Structure formats: structure tokens, C-alpha cells
Amino acid sequence: QVQLVASGGGSVQAGDSLRISCTASERTSRTVAMAWFRQAPGKEREFVAAITWSRGFTSYADSMKGQFTISRDNAKNTVYLQMNSLKPEDTAVYFCAGGTIMGEYEYWGQGTQVTVSS
Questions:
Q1: C-alpha to C-alpha distance for 82 and 30, rounded to whole angstroms
Q2: Using CA atoms, how far apart are residues 106 and 33, in angstroms rounded to an integer?
Q3: What's the angle, vertex CA 113, arms to CA 20 and CA 82, rounded to 5?
Q4: Number of Cβ atoms within 10 Å of the Cβ of 22
Q5: Per residue in 75-104, pLDDT tens?
Q6: Could you tell me which residues are beta bridge partners of residue 73?
Q7: Which of 60, 40, 42 is nearest to 50 (CA)?
Q8: How far is Cα of residue 107 from the mean position of the Cα atoms in its chain?
């Protein structure tokens, strides 16, 4: 069973940057792709970005391009989400997920809270 642990969330001011992390207990064929999702209060969970371990292919939600950057450190089994120019509407619980291909995620982390104050 692959375990994903998200960390690095916190409370920041609008305009600040924050990097959150997701560490996988292992990298296997079941977690070829890793992704970040977020869920704001009262809203549905939405896709943020995804990356593959092997070649680092990335995919972003259109609304996140340019503001968020996903990256990975294979040696640490860790995926990062760098978030810049944060706005109050970026406030959400951010979840990491892993799956065999982009778009299909079987494993989910517990989420990390990001709160942006104006």
C-alpha cells in the first residue's frame, strides 16, 4: 500500500509564496504519475497540476499555469508544489495523489491546509 504524506501548508498573506511537499512511501508502477488537487470550503475538489516520476512530464489546470509549479525529487520520493503570488481564493486543502497514469489516481494523501489572508 503506497502512502502519501503532504506537508508544508500554513497561513500566509496575499502575494506571498509557499511550497508544499508530498512524500511517497515508495515509487512503483502504481504511482507513475503524481498530482496535486485542492478543495476550497463549499467547493468541489479541483485538479491543480501533475507530474511523472520518470521524465518529469507536467500538466497544469489552465487557471494555475504561471502561478503554480510542480516538481519532483526522485531521490527523496517527494513531489513539490511551488505556489507564487497567492490570493485569498487559493485558500484550500491541498491533496496529493498518485496513480498509474495522469488523470487516474488511486492513492491519496491526507491534505495540507493553505490559508491566504488579504
A1: 24
A2: 10
A3: 25
A4: 26
A5: 999 999 999 999 999 999 999 999 988 889
A6: 78
A7: 60
A8: 13
